[in-house]
C-alpha cells in the first residue's frame, strides 16, 4: 500500500514494511511552503495506520530542509498568521505523535523549522557534511516548529539556550557530541546506515514498539507513578498478542521471531 501524494514535492513511497517520505524541492534546499507542510502532516497521518512499521523522513538533492519557504506562496497568506502557525503545530504533532517509529535521514542543511522537523522524529541519522542551526534569532524570530520544547528534550535546557540565543551553525560532529543526533556516517554510507536501523525496527513487534514510543514520549511530562501505570496497561495488552506468543516460541526454538503485528 502506497499513501497518496498530497503535494508534488512531498513524496511518500514504501518498500516492504518501511515507508520513506521525501521532501523534494532541492532548488530551495527543501524549504517548505505552507501547502507543503500541510501535505507532510497529511502524509504522516495516512502512514500512521497503514501497516508500515518504520518511517524515514528525508530531503532530496543533498539537503534535509532549510525551514520555511517564506516567499514560496502556497497557503501562508490564508487568514491570520495564527491560523498558519497552528497548521504548523499540527504537522509537528503528526510527526512526533506518529505511533510508528520515525527516523530522520539528514544530509546537508537542517535549519530553522527543518531542525524542528528533524527533532520531531524519534531519531536522527546524519551525514558527516550535515549542518544544524536553530537559526530563528538571526531572522529576528523566536523559536517555532516545536523547537522550544523539542530542542531542550534532546540536548538539555542549557545547551538548547546556547543554540537558540546564538543561532550558530554546528557541524554533524558537534551535533553528535551534544546528543542532537544518534549517529554520523560518511555521506556515501548514510543510506546503508539508515537502512540498518530501519530494518531492525521493522523486524520488531509493531504493537509493542508503538506502545514503547508512547511510554517514552509521555515520560517527559509524567510522574514515575504515572509511568508505572502506563507500563502496566501496555504489558497487559502485550501478553495477549500473537507477537508475544511468537517471541516465546522463537526463544524456545532458538530462532529469530517473525512478528505479525497482531
CATH superfamily of the largest domain: 2-enoyl-CoA Hydratase, Chain A, domain 1
Shape: globular
Helix and strand run: EEHEHEEHEEHHEHEHHHH
Strand line-up in the sheet with most strands? 1-2-3-4-6-9
Number of domains: 2
Give the topology, please.
Blueprint: E1 10-15, E2 18-23, H1 34-48, E3 54-59, H2 81-96, E4 102-106, E5 109-111, H3 113-120, E6 123-127, E7 131-133, H4 147-155, H5 157-166, E8 170-171, H6 172-177, E9 183-185, H7 190-202, H8 206-218, H9 224-238, H10 242-253
Parallel strand pairs: 2-3, 3-4, 4-6, 5-7, 6-9
Antiparallel strand pairs: 1-2, 7-8
Kindly describe this structure.
A hairpin with a 2-residue loop joins β1 (10-15) and β2. The strands form two sheets. Strands 1-2-3-4-6-9 form a six-stranded mixed β-sheet, sandwiched between helices. It is of the alpha/beta class and 262 residues long. It is built from ten helices and nine strands. It has helices at residues 34-48, 81-96, 113-120, 147-155, 157-166, 172-177, 190-202, 206-218, 224-238, 242-253; strands spanning 10-15, 18-23, 54-59, 102-106, 109-111, 123-127, 131-133, 170-171, 183-185. α2 (81-96) runs parallel beside α3 (113-120) and α3 (113-120) packs across α4 (147-155).
Amino acid at each position: 500500500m502506497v499513501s497518496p501524494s498530497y503535494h508534488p514535492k512531498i513524496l511518500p513511497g514504501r518498500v516492504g514494511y518501511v515507508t520513506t517520505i521525501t521532501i523534494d524541492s532541492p532548488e530551495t534546499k527543501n524549504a517548505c511552503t505552507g501547502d507543503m507542510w500541510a501535505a507532510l502532516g497529511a502524509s504522516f497521518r495516512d502512514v500512521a495506520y497503514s501497516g508500515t512499521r518504520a518511517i524515514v523522513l528525508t530531503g532530496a538533492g543533498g539537503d534535509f530542509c532549510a525551514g520555511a519557504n517564506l516567499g514560496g506562496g502556497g497557503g501562508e497568506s490564508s487568514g491570520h498568521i495564527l491560523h498558519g502557525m497552528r497548521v504548523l503545530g499540527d504537522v509537528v504533532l503528526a510527526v512526533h505523535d506518529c505511533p510508528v517509529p520515525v527516523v530522520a535521514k539528514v544530509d546537508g542543511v537542517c535549519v530553522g523549522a527543518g531542525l524542528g522537523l528533524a527533532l520531531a522524529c524519534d531519531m536522527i541519522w546524519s551525514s558527516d557534511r550535515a549542518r544544524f542551526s536553530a537559526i530563528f534569532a538571526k531572522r529576528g524570530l523566536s523559536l517555532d516548529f516545536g523547537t522550544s520544547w523539542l530542542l531542550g528534550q534532546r540536548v538539555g535546557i542549557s545547551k538548547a539556550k546556547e543554540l537558540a540565543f546564538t543561532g550558530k551553525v554546528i557541524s554533524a560532529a558537534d551535533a553528535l557530541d551534544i546528543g542532537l543526533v544518534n549517529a554520523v556516517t560518511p555521506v556515501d554510507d548514510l543510506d546503508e546506515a539508515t537502512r540498518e536501523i530501519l530494518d531492525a525496527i521493522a523486524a520488531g513487534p509493531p504493537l509493542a514498539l508503538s506502545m514503547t514510543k508512547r511510554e517514552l514520549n509521555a515520560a517527559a511530562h509524567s510522574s514515575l507513578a504515572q509511568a508505572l501505570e502506563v507500563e502496566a496497561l501496555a504489558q497487559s495488552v502485550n501478553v495477549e498478542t500473537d507477537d508475544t506468543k511468537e517471541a516465546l516460541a522463537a526463544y524456545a526454538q532458538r530462532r529469530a521471531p517473525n512478528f505479525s503485528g497482531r
